[in-house]
Specification:
With 643 residues, this protein is an alpha/beta fold. The protein is built from 27 helices and 14 strands. The strands form 2 sheets. Strands 3-2-1-4-5-6-7-14 form an 8-stranded parallel sheet, with helices on one face. The longest helix is centred in the last third of the chain and has 20 residues. It is globular, with a radius of gyration of 31 Å. The relative contact order is 0.07. The model has no long low-confidence stretch (mean pLDDT 96).
Length: 643
């Protein structure tokens, strides 16, 4: 007697449970034409999946879902996911888009759509709604895909939510931990940051420094002023550290020196509006072309260069290496016979410092971009000065010190105007109170530094702090931090980010700049001084925390460098109550702007060229690099610029 449909289906179910998959397929072949519901097709999909036939299983689940079961959504979702796994992207996308319309709050179809977008190179599919669904999900697979979509965007506040979730899911993953800390700095999320920093410092105190290996060197400097610990931050994308014998082998290679010293500068910051060029542009133009041949190895993205052709022509010969692989770029430098290759990036975003781990030139130099040792990069020298690179720092650098006599930082005095007075009312500032300003990047507003500002404000309740913080989340978090530290709400005013010309024009409206700590203002401190604003800082313990001391000495204001935190608070308080002293400080800047070393690009260039010459002479003589100080030219007796 022929068994009923239900009995044969039950037999197929039993065979499936017994893992007799071939027999299941045989039975289902007879059942499928008679099926009036979804179950045979669903069982077929499960069986095909067990046999590794993913694409065929997807078709079966889709068929089952279209048979009108009470709950078709789960079957169709499973079909869409299996189409994705099988590489049948068109089918996966079409089905997932329908499911997303039906259940717009479900992250599962969004995951499929986003995955197809990544695999197929269709960024238009990666709409914000889909990113939001993935970030809002608690599924680890969804969160990991969200990292691919937004995890490298420092401006996307969703990363705070994303990495906080990942941190809870994977508490032992040091890379998730340090990435979360990085985003908390970008968005001033002090509650998370303080907890993580406290735990990290406790681990280090116990001798456990393993977490530092997952931190990028640049973010490590945002909180850590210990030069020994700075060297342990080793999360450097694409860098294979140089072998111990690589420098000696590189220096021993045959090399033909010419009549002129051939200097190559490596950077992706060669565009007019970049902060680096506000510093470096004047030096590049001042190079003595009779003695030096200058090449810029530029990997600046084309979109930033725009109409900069005239300015770039003054900087030197430009070789575009943006589209070259590392081997091709290194070979181009070798063909040019470069004597000195100067890396201007170090361990900062967009760096190609790894090129120095090829034997490019007899002399490799690190300068300007990264305030510390370029760990893992084959550099002979690092350019600094007696403030940022004191003798006590030598054990923490593999590079030898080339110390400039004034400051390691150049400035271009020719391409920017000196701002005039700024009306406070235009910026919403009180006209009858002392105004501190803090205009560094908000990632530098570390709890240690902003806590010091809070002490100054609590000690001087009549003063206000005008600080540049961008974004609602960051502003709310900063306001909450200050209030918790005892600062009244009427003592701080937020300043928006502005284009450089507008930004520098507002600076004179403040009375005194407050430096960030432990990562000082660098270009920002120079900008403040250029605009005539005195800046108060305190002595630091590594390169990044000593920069403002260097700059203040170079403009003739060493009295604005406090010995420690207590002295910093005392210094700022004394200035609040002595407006005449503040006026004298401003006058010192005005008197020294065009005669002191800080903004004297030509003087800086002559010192730099002496240093380059000394490096080359040692290389010609087959002598290894050694620490040296560049001798100072006589002080100027007349201004290098009159207005």
């Amino acid at each position: 007697m022929r068994l009923s449909f239900d009995d044969r289906l039950a037999e197929a179910e039993a065979m499936f449970s017994a893992e007799r998959y071939s027999e299941v397929l045989t039975l289902l072949a007879g059942l499928m034409p008679e099926a009036t519901n979804h179950r045979p097709a669903e069982l077929l999909g499960e069986t095909l999946l067990k046999l590794g036939m993913v694409g065929e299983a997807a078709e079966a689940f889709e068929h089952a879902g279209l048979k009108g079961p009470p709950q078709p959504y789960p079957l169709l979702l499973k079909a869409a996911r299996l189409y994705l796994d099988a590489g049948r992207l068109d089918k996966a996308l079409a089905l997932a888009v329908q499911l997303n319309r039906h259940q717009p709050a479900d992250p599962a179809p969004a995951f499929i759509i986003a995955s197809v977008g990544l695999k197929a190179g269709q960024p238009g599919l990666l709409v914000d709604q889909i990113k939001n669904l993935l970030v809002d999900s608690d599924d680890p697979e969804h969160l990991k895909l969200a990292v691919q979509l937004i995890g490298d965007d420092l401006r996307d506040a969703r990363n705070l939510t994303l990495f906080a979730k990942l941190r809870r899911l994977y508490p032992d993953d040091p890379f998730i931990r340090t990435t979360l800390m990085g985003f908390t700095r970008e968005f001033c999320d002090y509650p998370i940051l303080l907890g993580e920093e406290q735990a990290l410092r406790a681990e280090i105190a116990r001798g456990d420094t393993r977490a530092l290996a997952a931190e990028t060197p640049h973010y490590n400097l945002m909180w850590c002023g210990d030069e020994a610990l700075n060297r342990l931050a080793a999360n450097i994308t694409g860098l294979v550290p140089f072998a111990a014998d690589a420098p000696a082998r590189r220096r021993a290679r045959p090399h033909r020196f010419g009549d002129r010293i051939r200097v190559g500068y490596l950077s992706n910051d060669f565009w007019v509006d970049h902060a680096t060029m506000r510093l470096l542009g004047g030096v590049l133009k001042a190079h003595d072309r009779d003695r030096f041949d200058i090449t810029l190895y530029c990997h600046t993205p084309e979109r930033f260069i725009g109409g900069d052709a005239a300015a770039r022509a003054e900087w030197g010969r430009i070789t575009r290496i943006e589209g070259m692989g590392d081997d091709e770029a290194a070979a181009a430098m070798q063909r040019d016979g470069i004597d000195i290759l100067v890396d201007l990036k170090g361990h900062t975003a967009g760096s190609r410092s790894r090129l120095l781990n090829a034997p490019v030139a007899p002399v490799h130099v690190a300068w300007l971009g990264f305030p510390g040792s370029s760990v893992g990069v084959d550099c002979d020298y690092v350019i600094g000065d007696r403030f940022v690179l004191p003798d006590s720092a030598r054990p923490h650098y593999h590079e030898k010190f080339c110390r400039m006599p004034d400051s390691y930082q150049p400035n271009d005095p020719w391409t920017r105007t000196v701002p005039g007075p700024a009306a406070r009312r235009a910026f919403g500032l009180p006209t009858d109170r002392f105004v501190f300003s803090a205009f560094n990047s908000q990632r530098k507003n570390a709890p240690e530094g902003i806590g010091l500002w809070a002490r100054v404000l609590v000690a001087n309740p009549e003063a206000v702090l005008w600080l540049m913080v961008d974004g609602t989340h960051a502003r709310n978090a900063t306001a909450d931090f200050l209030r918790r530290a005892g600062v009244r709400s009427d003592q701080f005013i937020f300043a928006p980010k502005m284009p450089y010309t507008s930004h520098i024009a507002r600076v004179p409206a403040a009375d005194l700049g407050l430096d960030s700590f432990p990562y000082n203002g660098h270009t920002t401190t120079s900008d403040m001084l250029w605009a005539g604003l005195p800046v108060a800082t305190r002595k630091g313990t590594n390169f990044a925390s000593r920069v403002s001391e260097s700059l203040l000495n170079a403009i003739g204001l060493p009295e604005l460098v406090a010995e420690d935190a207590d002295a910093f608070v005392a210094l700022c308080s004394a200035l609040v109550s002595d407006r005449e002293r503040v006026a004298r400080l401003r006058q010192t800047i005005a008197d020294n702007r065009f005669i002191a070393p800080l903004f004297d690009a030509e003087r800086f260039c002559r010192h730099l060229e002496w240093g380059y010459g000394h490096m080359v002479e040692r290389a010609k003589s087959r002598l290894p690099p050694e620490h040296f100080d560049v001798p100072a030219l006589a002080p100027r007796t007349s201004p290098f610029r009159t207005s």
